[in-house]
Amino acid sequence: MEKAKGRIHYLDRLRILATIAVIVIHVSSQKAYGLAQIGSAPWQGFNFWDSLSRCSVPLFTMISGALFLNPNYHFQLKRVFTNSFLLVPCLATIIFIVSGLVMALVQQIPWFNKHIM
């Protein structure tokens, strides 16, 4: 592994490749399903690039796994929760649930008041 100051360079390159693939997914799927007629040659081209770049999300997952499963890496649960890896989705879920409950109480939603309260 190429390392300089704790970085693994090939994982950085894979991360760049996966980022570009995500951009390709968003651009090609919008063009394929928004502008081109289904089955036409442009649609086939956009569909090809969209399908080819679908590996990006699993690639991000594998990169995270490679970093977490490094035999020299010492796992600390505190580090996982202090990083944005789980913190952002957990906070977003909590905010979503709390705001939904507040809106349900403020708007007096009958189903919510009947079944929950």
Helical stretch count? 6
The low-confidence runs, each spanning 5 or more residues with pLDDT under 50, are: none
> What percent strand?
under 5%
* Major sheet: arrangement of strands: 1-2
Domain Acyltransferase: 8-108
Keywords: Membrane, Transmembrane, Transmembrane helix
Organism: Lactobacillus amylolyticus DSM 11664
GO molecular function, one term: acyltransferase activity, transferring groups other than amino-acyl groups
Task: Name the features.
117 residues; mainly alpha; 2 domains; two-stranded antiparallel sheet; 6 helices; 2 strands; transmembrane; acyltransferase activity, transferring groups other than amino-acyl groups
Question: Can you walk me through this structure?
Answer:
- The structure is a single chain.
- The protein has 117 residues and is mainly α.
- The protein has 2 domains: 73 residues; 42 residues.
- Helices cover 74% and strands 3% of the residues.
- The protein contains 6 helices and 2 strands; from the N terminus they run E-E-H-H-H-H-H-H.
- A two-stranded antiparallel sheet has the order 1-2.
- Helix 1 runs antiparallel to helix 2.
